[in-house]
Amino acid sequence: MRCLFVGMHEYTWHYPRLLKMEFHSLDMDPEQAIYGPAGRHTIGSATNMSEFYAEASFDVVVANGVIGWGLNKRADFERLMEQCHRVLKPAGLLILGYNDTPEHAPFEVDMAWRDLFAPTTPPIPGVTQARHAMDDSYAHVFLFGERRPAPATP
Q1: What is the pTM assigned to this prediction?
Q2: Residue 16 pLDDT more than 90?
Q3: For residue 37, how many C-alpha atoms fall within 13 Å in the half-sphere facing its CB?
Q4: CB 21 within 8 A of CB 79
Q5: What is the DSSP letter of 127?
Q6: CB 27 within 8 A of CB 48
Q7: Using 50, 70 and 90 to split pLDDT, how confident is the model at 10?
Q8: Total structural domains in the chain?
Q9: Phi, psi (deg, nearest 5) at residue 68
Q10: On the CB side of 11, how many CA atoms lie within 13 Å of its CA?
Q11: In CATH, what number is assigned to the domain containing residue 71?
Q12: What are the backbone angles phi and psi of residue 6, rounded to the nearest 5°?
């Protein structure tokens, strides 16, 4: 399985070895490259990820801590969703993690936007629905979605 993790930081340094997948990472801040896997980290924006990765090249995309921390406008969120849809394989899993507060989610974060993804409950222990709120002071939430086929163009 191939995984793309978007949004590296010091608290993610151990993710590549914990997740038993071919782990790739993407972050626009060059200083965060030290936390990505050697040879599989890309410096660039989540809103342009299809410039770096082929279409349908990942089984899982995790975008954690980018909404409200760089992707601050609704148009940026929509571009992120389109880009995730492009790089995910059919029926691939998208995981969005964000802080559900007005300053970090100033717009509705909707997994079902434009029907690109169907909300889904993944087989993760303790996760019982497609929206999983963490019991923490950050109001951190994870949304899970399965990639739907591309919408037909008129």
Answers
A1: 0.93
A2: no
A3: 16
A4: no
A5: -
A6: no
A7: confident
A8: 1
A9: 85, -5
A10: 3
A11: 3.40.50.150
A12: -105, 120
Strand intervals (E) in 10-57 = 22-27, 41-43
- Residue numbers of the domain that contains 141: 2-147
Q: Letter for the amino acid at 95?
A: I
Domain membership flag for residue 81: yes
In a domain, 70, yes or no: yes
Identify each DSSP E strand in 35-136 by its residue range: 41-43, 58-64, 88-99, 117-119, 131-133
Mean pLDDT, rounded, for 89-111 = 94
Neighbours of 79 (CB within 10 A): 17
Q: Is 154 a domain residue?
A: no
Instruction: Give the pLDDT confidence score for residue 21 in this predicted structure.
Output: 86
Residue 54 within a domain: yes
Gap between the Cα atoms of 58 and 90, Å rounded: 9
